[in-house]
What we know:
Strand content: 15-25%
Strand order of the largest sheet: 10-11-8-18-15-16-17
Low-confidence stretches: 1-8, 688-692
Oligomer: single chain
Mean pLDDT: 95
Amino acid sequence: xxxxxxxxxxxxxxxxxxxDASNTVTIAIGAxxxxxxxxxxxxxxxAEELKLNWSQVLAVQADANAQANNPFANPLFHAQLxxxxxxxxxxxxxxxxAAAVARDMLLAAATQLYGGTWSLTTGGRxxxxxxxxxxxxxxxxxxxxxxTPPDPNSVSLTSSFQLIGRRVPRLDxxxxxxxxxxxxxxxxxxxxxYATVLHCxxxxxxVATAPTSVSGATNVINLGNAVAFVANDTWSAMQAANAxxxxxxxxxxxxxxxxxxxxxxxxxNALVTxxxxxxxxxxxxxxxxxxxxxxxSVKIDSTYxxxxxxxxCMEVLNCTVSVTSTSCEAWVPTQGxxxxxxxxxxxxxxxxxxxxxxxxxxxxxxxxxxxTDFVIQAVKVSKAIGRPVKLTWSRTQDFQNDKYRPSASIxxxxxxxxxxxxxxxxxxxxxxxxxxxxxxxxxNNPEDTGAVAGAxxxxxxxxxxxxxxxxxxxxxxLGYWRSVGESYNTFAIExxxxxxxxxxxxxxxxLRRTALANDARALAVIDAVDQLSGYTTTxxxxxxxxxLAFLKGFGSYIALVLHVTGTAAAIRVVRAFYALDCGQVxxxxxxxxxxxxxxxxxxxxALWGQVTFxxxxxxxxxxxxxxxxxxxxxxxxxxxxxxSSAAPGGVGETPVPVVAPxxxxxxxxxxxxxxxxxxxxxxxVMGEGGDD
Length: 692
């Protein structure tokens, strides 16, 4: 269940909790639910502190909030947005404390109303410690709402868990199963029009001229970077757009080399070895690292290349907005509520108090829906036509106007002794910088979650390390993609470690175990995946290869072993084994689902994912040329979740970065061929009959 019955009054205890007359507790969640189960997980920790029965718990997504002290801003970074596997890490203690505050307010209310001393019992009730009389929260809520809340840092938290760590039913699934869940595309408001947009086929192009009216559309609106076509339904709007695309004239960028894949790859390959490149050093430990690699008993010098990637969310970008002279109301499938009210205020001139933004369910977010571009367009269209509008991008517009994950060319020089003990690492990542492109970093500092995340602060014992980042000038629109920088830096690091193991004749798992000797949690994960998969103990059938990859990231530790069959030209992944230490586990069912989903995401990207650009024009239009894993290709997945008393770590992003290196390592184990460029099978298509 996800919403209260209409017309049932409720009393609020702080920003997060409401208790209604049916003794149902509704929890407002600041994080966005996009399939990862965060509504359930965060509600679970509140229910734990209040000793609620799961059947009396509801959860709703909080609206965007423009307060200076926004109660729904993630406490980790003080902004209301969802990304980086931070929701549980940010909210675990604050929401537990908020629930404990509400508990103490309810107990104080019971004393005010009935006298005596009260304590919490199960099922949303309090009990008199002397008489055993009980009262429901609903009887106390109105009085409790008037109690001065205690200091959140002074309340006691439960140490005996009944719900945390258990598999409880997800709160969002019934509505998603029966069709009542509202995604962005499901929103309907009275009197609304429907719109779609056409952008310039060349990235960076702007509208030179556009028609003011066309057959099949009620309105045509020049948005500057696109043209909106408005009609009485979405299909008619898209038909009108396609029929009249040739009437739009575009002003193209003067130079297109910074938007061309071939030119960008050539520039990156030059920078990855250049001695005169402008480097940003993020780690410099030890000395003479390059000379130490050169003098090592075993050494590799390898370059790994990764492409631009699209987000490819199942639900295309969309936004429903109603702008009037005095107010604006919007319904948005968004990860970035923090940015929406200021953005809408700038367009409409309305005060923040006149703007309401509702968060709908997301049919995939993956980082794309942190952005505001599609919301800006919808607001402008509604303002121009003077009525509510639902703006929906076509699939082609979605693919060709993404905020793409940056490409990367990464050179790794790694040396070890003859027994595989790692000694020196020289690492250089050349890739476009999100922060430089957006001018969001003081002093043009390129550091963002894509620069060197997954390459610095490694848990491996490598006494000499030089980690560099070289920004690649590019005008491809960039954005945050699930697992961001770890998605390419982990591929390079874990592939290079495997190459050293192969060159030194040391079992790759044994090499990692030795290099991780000083990190007990890392060792436990390595040992767990070994036991689960039989990596060091079980001989595989002929024609089967195995590959291992490890990551410490997003507050968690994870290892993955993949088994593959086939040939270098046609690989099939048949089994996957995950071991994960994500600290305190809230809902094991959601964790396992994220591992399985992360595997699908990672395999699709590693095998086939790629967006190329020719003179500024993206070469992907739909899923026919952006291959995804099919159901019949899904490997058997086994996982083990290590019980831990550590604070919760991230799970949503964590399974993805280890997939590509584990796959490349497994292929090398099977075929003897080391693949260093992703995707492994560029140019794959999804044709009829399963042909690629």
